[in-house]
Each structure stands twice: as structure tokens, then as C-alpha cells.
Amino acid sequence: MKRSLFWNVMFYIFVAFVVLESVFPFYYAIITSLKTGSQIFYITYLPVIPTSQAEFAHLFDNYYAVLFSGNGTFLRNIWNSIWVSTWTVAVALFLGTTAAYALARVRFAGRKLLLMTILAVSMFPQVAVLAGLFETVQSLGIYNTDWSLIFSYTIFTLPFTVWILTTFMRELPVELEEAAIVDGATPWQIISRVFLPLMWPALVTTGLLAFIAAWNEYLYALTFTASSNENRTVPVGIALLSGNSDHEIPWGPIMAASVIVTVPLIMLVLIFQRKIIAGLTAGSVKG
To answer: pTM score, two decimals?
Structure first.
């Protein structure tokens, strides 16, 4: 009994440590984003509490500076990230769903080898394929456009999209597909009318993971949209807030920008957390 109590206590201590380790950086970014002037250089772990109306009026100066300075440049960056990430999710889910149907339901030679090849592609670091991808983007004539990012992001989000959807689709009852075939349904009708309504947990999981990957990606965004601010996404926009090296780094606006771009992801995860868990655990239980 004492041994069980000891391990329960140790478990909760470990969970508390993991939660603190995960949440504290974001919490510290929030309280830092509310500081201005020399306050930023004083380490405090409690949020700034305004003691006067004047202090309250300046509490969100960093957020105002990020959102409305520079002719709305950062707002444009946010819109670019939303546009690119949404299109990446749409393309990745369409290609991933159709590929998962073929890999999970259609028997053909080399199916397992193809699935392993898709997994192997995801093992290459982004920088290893950057040069070849840059040449491809230029040859397609989409350099310095949103489509260069959508194209490159789709490539590195497809492997885990295909794997998760394939695993989930394998668990769907084969009787549903057989009944649809007897009724004369085509493969596309089976995917769209039979499987898709049952695959929402997996679709939400893979879609959200693809959205987060595209939203946070920096290397490709910097490489393919370096010469124009019209197409830059928020990671590059935050990096450029630091300005020139001979100026003081504006930590307050940088923290405010980081909070702004992180909050939507947290809200999405909280809203879809149940479907995310169901999608990630698909195929883990047999019987």
C-alpha cells in the first residue's frame, strides 16, 4: 500500500514538472509582453498589475506596436500564414485520404514497400532537401509566392498524414465497403460517403498537425519569400522584428507577437482535443 502511494505521488510530481516545463515559457512570454521600457530587463514571475489609469493605458503597448505599426505588416503576415496553412491542410488531407484508401484497402504489389518509402521520406531533415526543393520551386515559376510555401509544406506534411489516415482506415469494418460495392458505389463514393463520415477523429488530428507544422515553419518561409514582405508568414515576420543588429532588440513586441501567433493554436487544440486523442490512438487497440 505504501509502495503504491509512493509511486502515485512520484507520478503526480512528474506530471506537475512536465506541465510546468511546458506552460512556463508561454506564461513568461505573456508577462514579458505586458512590460515596457526598462521593466523588461527586471526578472519577475508575476504579471504586471497597473496601479494607475496611465499605466493601464500603456499595458498593451507592445501588442498595439506589433499589430498596427509598419502599415499593418504583421497583420499581413498573419493572413499569409492562415492562407498558406489552410491550403496546406486541404491539399494534404485530399492527397492523404486518397492515398490511405489505396494503401489500406487496395491490394497491389509493393504496397508495404511504398508505405515504408513514404515513412523514410519524412526522416530527411528539411535542410537536406532545401537545395533541390529550391531548384524545383524556381523551375515551376512559383518562387516568392504563397504557392511555393503550400507546395513545400504539403511535401513534408504528407508522410505523417498518409500514415495516420492509413492506420485509421485499416480499422474501419470491411463490411461497410463490401455493402457499398454491392450497391454499385465507385471508389470515390466509398471514400466520400462511407469512410469520410467515420474518419473525423483522424482527419482532425492530421489536419491540425499539418496546420501547426505549416504555421510554425521558418526555414522554407525564409528561403522562398525572402525578397518580398507581401508573402512572408508570421515566423519570418517575428524574426524581422529584431531589426538591424546595431539597434536594441525589441523584446516586448517580439514576445507580444509570439503570444498572438500561439493563442490560436492553443484554442484549436483545446476545441478538438477529444478528436485528436481518438485520432492518435487509432489502431492501438485490437478486438
So the answer is: 0.84
